[in-house]
Design a protein that fits this description.
The chain is an all-alpha fold. The chain has a single domain, classed as Na+/H+ antiporter like fold. Helices cover 71% and strands 1% of the residues. It has 16 helices and 2 strands. Strands 1-2 form a two-stranded antiparallel sheet. Helix 4 packs across helix 7, helix 10 packs across helix 11 and helix 15 runs antiparallel to helix 16. It is a multi-pass membrane protein. It catalyses: Na(+)(in) + 2 H(+)(out) = Na(+)(out) + 2 H(+)(in). It is found in: Cell inner membrane; Cell membrane.
């Protein structure tokens, strides 16, 4: 096996990719608060790209909107496999993480409003900040600290966090975006329809396309176009990655050794783990901690912390438990409610979308500084709590395995 093949195989490990992501985030945080902070800001604010296509973006935007779309494609593709062949084939199991995600969106927003309602003014505008879970960081913490946990818990987290992010993006489009382009959105939807039709592998049009342009070239051309149109629509462009992942075909047709879904995952997972996620963390996690006077007395700070820590646990665990209590939905055979509570804690890791909503909510210091610092504080607390709980649950599951 070549060195490149060994590296690619290693990068398919959630534990290694998670460690790289967390390490890159720590480097960014130290760099942004060091005497070299000016160089960090220069790096992530550097712009490049075709201005004619409205893609003259900063390095930070390219990472959050572009590179992260690769990771979201992997997530969508993995969910599609679970929906067709895995845990989520049973609607009674699939409904639990979906309802849990919706609870984890609603309760944090209500808690933020409860803390800030008396402040009035611009403070209540940040109600959407604690709604979103950062799926990349949450999966990283789960991979590093929860090695003995059932694989179905990871599926639960992926489903929950994807629905969570979709809900947050809808909130951004409805409540925080004034420049939504329906034309670009319609063209992106048309591109996705073509993508799905080509993935089906059926029909004379698909056969003609394959005869004229063999191999993956049609997707190589179509995927960036769909992403660019989604970006131009005003909706977070990573949604294009999720959508294309969910459209991947997971079955094997005549003449194929593996499905397109499997081929894409084999090719792109090392790219996501070794490039997309670490670079995203490096240019996104560097939040300056200076200039946050009044941070500890700000209702914005405590609204975000209460929403991400308390609200996520209550919403996720409560939503899942109530659904199981009053419907036929149920947990997987190896999962317990303590495992779902651990996912609720992981849900408090809000980063990318939370920071985006913070910037859309507040025009500048001190409110924006307090909101960004609160997201960082809550995410750090949630990560540490999750590590403790996940290790206990890992020990429990490992001890529960039958000998031999």
């Amino acid at each position: 096996m070549s060195a490149f093949a060994r590296l690619s195989a290693a990068l398919r490990s959630d534990a290694l990719s998670g460690s790289l992501l967390i390490a890159a985030a720590l480097v960014a945080l130290i760099w942004a608060n060091s005497p070299l902070s000016a160089s960090y800001e220069s790096l992530r604010s550097f712009h490049f790209g075709p201005a004619a296509l409205h893609l003259d973006l900063s390095v930070q935007s390219w990472a959050a909107d572009g590179l992260l779309a690769v990771f979201f494609f992997i997530v969508g593709n993995e969910l599609k496999q679970e929906l067709v062949h895995g845990e989520l084939r049973d609607p009674r199991r699939a409904v639990l993480p979906i309802v849990a995600a919706l609870g984890g969106v609603l309760i944090p927003a209500l808690l933020f409003l409860a803390v800030n309602v008396r402040s009035g003014g611009d403070a209540i505008g940040g109600w959407g900040i604690p709604m979103a879970t950062d799926i990349a960081f949450a999966v990283a913490v789960l991979a590093v600290a929860g090695r003995g946990l059932p694989g179905s818990l990871r599926t639960f987290l992926l489903t929950l966090a994807t629905v969570d992010d979709l809900a947050a993006v809808i909130v951004i489009a409805v409540a925080y975006t004034s420049g939504l382009s329906l034309t670009a959105l319609g063209l992106a939807a048309a591109g996705l329809a073509v993508f799905g039709y080509l993935q089906s592998g059926r029909g004379p049009a698909v056969r003609r396309v394959r005869a004229a342009v063999p191999g993956p070239l049609p997707y190589v051309l179509l995927a960036p176009a769909v992403w660019a149109l989604m970006h131009a629509s005003g909706i977070h462009a990573t949604i294009a990655g999720v959508a294309m992942g969910l459209l991947m075909r997971t079955t094997v047709r005549e003449g194929e050794s593996v499905s397109p879904s499997h081929r894409a995952e084999e090719l792109l997972r090392p790219v996501s783990a070794g490039l997309a996620l670490p670079v995203f963390a490096l240019v996104s996690a560097g939040i300056p901690l200076h200039g946050a006077g009044g941070f500890w007395t700000s209702t914005i700070t405590w609204g975000v912390v209460a929403g991400l820590i308390g609200g996520k646990i209550l919403g996720i665990l409560g939503g899942a438990w109530l659904t199981a209590r009053f419907t036929s939905a149920h947990l997987g055979p190896r999962l317990g409610w303590a495992d779902i509570a651990a996912v609720g804690i992981l849900g408090g890791i809000g980063f990318t979308v939370s920071l985006l909503i913070a910037e859309l909510s507040y025009s500048g210091a001190p409110d924006l500084t307090h909101a960004r610092g609160a997201v960082l504080l809550a995410s750090a607390i949630a990560s540490l709590l999750a590590v403790v709980v996940l290790r206990r649950r890992s020990a429990h599951h490992l001890g529960a395995r039958p000998a031999g």
